[in-house]
Amino acid sequence: MSDTPASVRTSRGPALNATLIIVCQSMQALAFGGVALFLPLIRDDVNISFSQAGSLAAVGTFTYAIMQVPAGYLADRYDPKRLFVIGLIGVNLLSMMFATLDQYSLLVANQAVSGVFRALIFAPGLILMQKQFRPDRAATAMGLYVAGGFSSNILLNALGPILVDTLGWRWLFVLFSLSGLLVLSAFARLGDSVYRPPTKDAARGSALKALLKHRVVWVSGFIQFVRLAVVTGVAFWLPSLLVDDKGFSLGVAGAVVAIGAAVTAPSNFLGGWLSDRLHRPRLVIGSSLAMLAVTLSLIPLIDNLAALIAVIAVNAIFIQLYFGPLFAVPLQYVGSNNAGVLSGFGNFCANLGGFAFTFILGAVKDSTGSFDLGLYMLAGLCVAGLGATALIGARPTEQAEPDADDVIETITGAAPLDQQSGIERVDAPVRTTDSGATLP
Question: Is the CB of residue 157 less than 8 Å from the CB of residue 37?
């Protein structure tokens, strides 16, 4: 991979770059989604309990979580494209190895190492995606980036239950991995780098310590904990809940999960778009958490398939609607310098929630015989997150770093958002992407 700055290489345009980034993100998501969908088959094949199955996902989430800040630090200092490619290579190779293992301990080790490489995908990929959009479309870019993972789940859950009867879950993992490596080769060849040498203040070792002085970082971090506790808990255990608690077949479970994924994919983009257009990210965040609390409380009470699909579909609309706004809000308070570290800390907090509740829901199922209590716990977390959203609105804007305005203008070429109104200042220059073009 060339170290030539992106500004002096021929650019292929933000549309192609964004497409390749999203497709790469969607292909690597097949590995994690495949573990969740085929978990009933994996449990029978390897002969493990629900608690062990939960720890299988939890260990990967844990290593993914603890690597978020280091990965963000590296993304601020080095070429995000190179880190993104390294992460994708590791995840796809480990997914292929996963298909060859038949011992619980080896499966756990595989997922633990995979979590490290997945961390190298998130923050670098988020930075790559942001650079394809104007600064005032940050939430849109973030929402579109994560939409790729949910888009692949539509295909996985629609075709997976059909193909698994013929190929088996192991060969499907091999197929996922080979497809991911093929798409990755296209991105490595055609995708533009956005690397710029870091400024003297960027990605210092003390960057995280300085960021943690802002209370908004901690408050948004708690909401991130809630967000991924719900996302991971539902994504990982929903197929098992439908099969083991509700009594439906794997084919029906796959269809229901596919419907949810089909709704979630566009909602990622829609949430970011609404936040950017309305300049009210806290409204998007709070509304999403309120609806999640309601739908999670209803799922244990419903056994009728049609009603269950309706509730799960509504849940799927809001489960990631606030992804982009939640990552964008802290940047409005503390600036976009060290954005990789800031995003890394947010995703670290998020994955602590994912780690905890992936295991907790499995333990609850083993101890009580159902997932009901675990779903009520997730609903309670959403209520707590709703309260934390109000605290974000109460944070004084004077907490922003004194030199944040100059730092943002230097790095992005645009003046920062006005802290009181969230509206970009009129004298802010319109900034094109590194490839010389803008996206709406």
Answer: yes
CB 164 within 8 A of CB 172: yes
> What is each CA distance from 248 to 238, 305, 362, in whole angstroms?
12, 9, 19
- Amino acid (1-letter code) at residue 336: S
One-letter amino acid for residue 354 of the chain? G
Tell me the Ramachandran region of residue 203: left when phi exceeds 0, alpha when psi lies from -120 to 50, beta otherwise.
left
Spatial contact of 257 and 157, defined as CB atoms under 8 Å apart: yes
Q: What's the chain look like in SS3?
A: CCCCCHHHCCCCCHHHHHHHHHHHHHHHHHHHHHHHHCHHHHHHHHCCCHHHHHHHHHHHHHHHHHCHHHHHHHHHHCCHHHHHHHHHHHHHHHHHHHCCCCCHHHHHHHHHHHHHHHHHHHHHHHHHHHCCCCHHHHHHHHHHHHHHHHHHHHHHHHHHHHHHHHHHHHHHHHHHHHHHHHHHHHHHHHCCCCCCCCCCCCCCCCHHHHHCCCHHHHHHHHHHHHHHHHHHHHHHHHHHHHHHHCCCCHHHHHHHHHHHHHHHHHHHHHHHHHHHHHCCHHHHHHHHHHHHHHHHHHHHHCCCHHHHHHHHHHHHHHHCCCHHHHHHHHHHHHCCCCHHHHHHHHHHHHHHHHHHHHHHHHHHHHHHCCCHHHHHHHHHHHHHHHHHHHHHHHCCHHHCCCCHHHHHHHHHCCCCECCCCCCECCCCCCCCCCCCCCCC
- Give the integer Cα–Cα distance in Å for 296 and 357: 14
**Structure tokens given for 211:** 């960021």
What global pTM score does this model have? 0.64
| Residue whose tokens read 């991911």 | 180
What are the average pLDDT values for consecutive 10-residue runs of the chain, which has 440 residues?
A: 43 74 80 78 85 81 84 81 90 91 90 90 81 72 69 74 86 89 85 60 58 81 92 86 88 84 78 80 90 95 92 91 82 67 80 85 88 94 91 50 38 41 41 42
**How many Å apart are CA 104 and CA 56, to the nearest integer?**
8
